[in-house]
Amino acid sequence: MTETKIIPIFPLDLVLFPRQELPLRIFEPRYKQLVDDCMLGDGQFGVCLIDEQNSVNGWNSPKMIGTIAKISKCEDVELDGLQLHIETMGRNSFKIKKIIPPAISQPTNYDPLSVEGHQEVSKIHEEIGTQEKMYIQAEVEMIPEIDENISLVRWKALIELWKNKIIHQALPQIVDSHALDHVLDQYYLNSDTPTIDYIYSLAALGAKDPNELQPLLEAPTIDDLIEKTKELLTVK
């Protein structure tokens, strides 16, 4: 039987892949509570792409496949403690088995960027009890990691697809293929021994929208991952 555990969930407008770095600025009360709880525990929470078709008590709902983020650094942006800066690293991906809604529903006309919005949520939290969780949690099971590397032949084929897509998107401006080699150098993607992380990075360079990257995170095998990457990088 697959082991499950309950973790905090942070829905974001991005896809975090394993072993990718993700810096975040935290300013909403519910996510400051999430970070505080993580720092008292194992420093881990789940990052999921926002599911735009659903919501949880009025808040952004997560996609069902996400990635564990491990906090490596946490510091105040200012001395007032109103904003935190955290640095995280992606670890294993996971599948949500059950969503645990937050204790607070999103207030009407809530503005996550306003002081008034933060004060309103904090007031509600005090009324219901500060031990209650303001953020989404979920019961999740870990997904086995793909431990195969990509062959050099298949990697070079993906590189050519990426170059063709970038060149096509730039039209009528002419983009030189050699200039794209410099881009690959900047991202350390010119290698004779590419790994699965190279696929994730190349796909991120070729995606216009994070929803295009979600199928890659959900790919169960190296072959499926390469096929999903081909679909993403092929000029439609």
Please, could you describe this protein's structure?
This protein has 236 residues and is an alpha+beta fold. It folds into two domains: 4-142, Roll (Archaeosine Trna-guanine Transglycosylase, Chain: A, domain 4), CATH 2.30.130.40; 152-233, no CATH class. It is built from seven helices and seven strands; from the N terminus they run ββαββββαβααααα. It has helices at 29-40, 115-128, 152-170, 177-186, 196-206, 214-217, 222-233; strands at residues 4-12, 21-26, 44-56, 59-62, 65-76, 84-100, 137-142. Strands 1-3-5-6-7 form a five-stranded mixed beta barrel. β5 (65-76) and β6 (84-100) form a beta hairpin. α3 runs parallel beside α5, α3 runs parallel beside α7 and α5 (196-206) runs parallel beside α7 (222-233). The longest helix is centred in the C-terminal third of the chain and has 19 residues, at 152-170. The N and C termini lie far apart (42 Å).
Oligomeric state of shown chains: single chain
SS field, number of helical segments: 7
The 3D shape can be described as: elongated
In what order do the strands lie side by side in the largest sheet?
Answer: 1-3-5-6-7
Proportion of beta-strand residues: 25-35%
Report the sheet with the most strands, covering strand number, pairing sense and barrel closure: 5 strands, mixed, barrel
What is the CATH homologous superfamily assignment of the largest domain? LON domain-like
Percent helix among the residues? Answer: 25-40%
Mean of residue pLDDT?
94
Count of individual domains: 2
What is the fold-level CATH name, i.e. the topology of the largest domain? Archaeosine Trna-guanine Transglycosylase, Chain: A, domain 4
Distance between the termini: 42 Å
Q: Architecture of the largest domain in CATH? A: Roll
Give the H and E element order.
Answer: EEHEEEEHEHHHHH
The class by helix and strand makeup works out as: alpha+beta
Rg measurement, Å: 20 Å
Unreliably modeled segments: none
- Can you count the beta strands? 7
